[in-house]
């Protein structure tokens, strides 16, 4: 039941030409919209993790309105019956929900290898054999659900077995999920990222999991700061970035050390493998996992590698 004093929100979407985009935005403001969104570009994906940003032939301009009364809505609708420029108009009522918490329904506890990833707002159903990672991703990437993170966690558990107290570098740490997993397995971790949100999330999640003493989070954009190489490095990054950083990853990994990489769509796996082999890495293992099926029926497939650095 909707109470009479509940807020009602409507959106007005105008589909127009590129030359009328600014006119449409100004028109929304003249109607006293509480917010205006312009969608004049779209992302086109190929069969990899690569994407291209292109201009929309018909931009979308959306205004958001808090409706004060039935007559207020009638006046707004009447005002859009004759627009001062060419556009297609559509009004829609917005269902108001607690969006700040609604998204949490998509993150139930998740078992990956020896780990059980439990959101901070859930009780832990872990068994005695499982290593619990309590996680609040906030605005940072990394919940364990993406195939690339899943692959990294499996390989991390496999490769860290029997290696307590190893020094590990996590390049592009995101929410810190891989750093947490490594620290829980006894590693001493340096987690790096160029995004402040990621560094804050990593620090907070380290505190939640009781491993803050084992994780140093560094806000850096590259690997120039690494003065002494690490015996274990992990990098869950996109293919082009892994290729660009290949020499830096070699410099950051000790001879005989281990490098785990993921974030690689399978069509790009050979490119990444070749780039890392050229700087002295040798493949120890390659593993793949399927991802989402897109609207065109094509199913993503992701790759991860374990490399050993030549001595």
Question: What is the total domain count?
Answer: 2
Q: Find the count of extended strands (DSSP E, 2+ residues).
A: 14
Biggest sheet statistics = 7 strands, mixed
> What's the CATH topology label of the largest domain?
Rossmann fold
Shape type: elongated
Distance between the termini: 70 Å
Low-confidence segments: none
Structural class: alpha/beta
- Strand content bin: 35-45%
Q: What's the name of the CATH homologous superfamily of the largest domain?
A: Vaccinia Virus protein VP39
The ordered H/E elements are: EHEEHEHEEEHEHEHEEHHEHEE
Assembly context of the chains: single chain
Percentage of residues assigned to helices: 25-40%
Identify the CATH architecture of the largest domain. Answer: 3-Layer(aba) Sandwich
Q: Return the average pLDDT rounded to an integer.
A: 87
Task: Order the strands across the largest sheet as they lie in space.
Answer: 10-9-8-11-12-14-13
Tell me about this structure.
The mean pLDDT is 87. Strands 10-9-8-11-12-14-13 form a seven-stranded mixed sheet. A four-stranded antiparallel sheet has the order 2-3-1-4. It is built from nine helices and 14 strands. The radius of gyration is 24 Å and the shape is elongated. The chain has two domains: 8-96, RRM (RNA recognition motif) domain (Alpha-Beta Plaits, 2-Layer Sandwich); 140-309, Rossmann fold, CATH 3.40.50.150. The protein has helices at 21-30, 70-79, 99-102, 147-160, 177-184, 196-208, 239-244, 246-252, 269-278, and strands spanning 8-16, 35-45, 51-67, 87-94, 110-112, 115-119, 131-135, 167-171, 188-193, 215-219, 230-236, 253-265, 281-293, 299-309.
């Amino acid at each position: 039941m909707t109470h009479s004093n509940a807020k009602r929100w409507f959106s007005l979407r105008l589909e127009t030409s590129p030359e009328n985009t600014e006119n449409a935005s100004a028109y929304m403001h003249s109607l006293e919209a509480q917010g205006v969104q312009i969608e004049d570009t779209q992302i086109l994906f190929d069969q990899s993790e690569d994407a291209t940003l292109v201009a929309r032939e018909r931009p979308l301009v959306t205004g958001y309105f808090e409706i004060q009364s039935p007559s207020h809505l009638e006046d707004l609708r009447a005002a859009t019956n004759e627009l001062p420029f060419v556009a297609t108009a559509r009004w829609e009522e917005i269902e108001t929900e607690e969006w700040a918490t609604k998204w949490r329904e998509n993150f139930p506890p998740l078992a990956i290898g020896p780990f059980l990833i439990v959101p901070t707002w859930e009780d832990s159903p872990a068994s005695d054999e499982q290593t619990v990672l309590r996680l609040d991703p906030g605005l940072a990437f990394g919940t364990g659900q993406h195939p690339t993170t899943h692959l990294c966690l499996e390989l991390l558990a496999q490769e860290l077995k029997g290696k307590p107290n190893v020094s590990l570098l996590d390049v592009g740490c995101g929410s810190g999920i891989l750093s947490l997993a490594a620290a829980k397995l006894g590693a001493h971790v340096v987690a790096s990222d160029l995004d402040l949100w990621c560094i804050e999330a990593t620090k907070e999640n380290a505190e939640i999991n009781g491993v803050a003493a084992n994780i140093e989070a560094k806000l850096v954009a590259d690997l120039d700061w690494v003065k002494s190489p690490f015996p274990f490095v992990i990098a869950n990054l996109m293919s082009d970035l892994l290729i660009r950083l290949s020499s830096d990853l070699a410099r950051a990994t000790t001879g005989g050390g281990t490098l785990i990489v993921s974030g690689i769509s399978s069509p790009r796996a050979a490119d990444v493998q070749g780039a890392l082999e050229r700087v002295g890495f040798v493949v120890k293992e390659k593993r793949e996992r399927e991802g989402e099926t897109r609207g065109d029926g094509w199913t993503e497939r992701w790759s991860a590698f374990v490399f050993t650095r030549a001595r």
